[in-house]
Amino acid sequence: MNALLEIRGLGFAWPGQAPLFAHLNASLTPGLALLTGDEQRGKTTLLRLLAAEIRPQAGTMQLTGQDIGDQLAGLRPDMTRPDLDTVVVADWLRTQVPEGPARDRLDEHIDGLSLGEHLHKGFYMLSAGGRRKVGLAAAMALQPPLTLLDQPFAALDLASIRYISDWLREQSLATDRLVLLADYEAPANLAIAQRIDLG
């Protein structure tokens, strides 16, 4: 199977700090992949680079053969943004997920993650786990070519962890998209063949 995501010679350092990585190379096929590394090794930074939120100092990143940049990037749901506090959950989901099959999938994920009772609330009323579940529901419904998940199980209840684990197992069989999951180690209940290890 051909690579969906190609990273070649990638280098990045925050101003005044040592490089997080230099000459990073990876080639990932569709399905599920794991990004691991200890604290401060650059997991979240790499996800931000792949989401085109920041730019590398060296190297290239390609998704389906095209450079990752302003027009093409991975989807990284960041639900910690303070500008979301006054936004109503249902309104935000409507702006993120278009009508059609994606909206149908969203309804399934709202049920699967027990979000129905929270749709009328502002984000400020949700726990960290609740906010995370809203972002995950949107990302899971959209099914973009590249979904970037940073510690997706953090602050979640057991039922939601099971639901997301089942969804991730399904994604491991995908032939047209990649889910890159960043965490300190592989989740115990998931078999993930592809890996980027930042040390």
| CATH topology type of the largest domain | Rossmann fold
Q: Which homologous superfamily in CATH is the superfamily of the largest domain? A: P-loop containing nucleotide triphosphate hydrolases
Succession of helices and strands: EEEHEEHHHEHEE
Q: Please tally the β strands and state the result.
A: 8
Global geometry = globular
Q: Provide the spatial order of strands within the biggest beta sheet.
A: 2-1-4-5
Commentary on this structure:
This protein has 199 residues and is an alpha/beta fold. It folds into two domains: 110 residues, P-loop containing nucleotide triphosphate hydrolases (Rossmann fold, 3-Layer(aba) Sandwich); 66 residues, no CATH class. The chain is 29% helix and 22% strand. Strands 2-1-4-5 form a four-stranded antiparallel beta sheet, with no helix packed on it. Strands 6-7-3-8 form a four-stranded parallel beta sheet, sandwiched between helices. A hairpin with an 8-residue loop joins β1 and β2. α3 runs antiparallel to α4. The radius of gyration is 17 Å and the shape is globular. It starts with a strand and ends with a strand.
Q: SSE layout and pairings?
A:
Elements (H helix, E strand, L loop, with lengths): L4 E8 L8 E8 L2 E6 L6 H8 L7 E6 L2 E2 L21 H8 L4 H12 L15 H15 L3 E5 L7 H14 L6 E5 L11 E4 L2
Parallel strand pairs: 3-7, 3-8, 6-7
Antiparallel strand pairs: 1-2, 1-4, 4-5
Helix pairs in contact: 3-4
In short:
This protein has 199 residues and is an alpha/beta fold. Helix content is 29%, strand content 22%. The protein is globular and about 45 Å long.
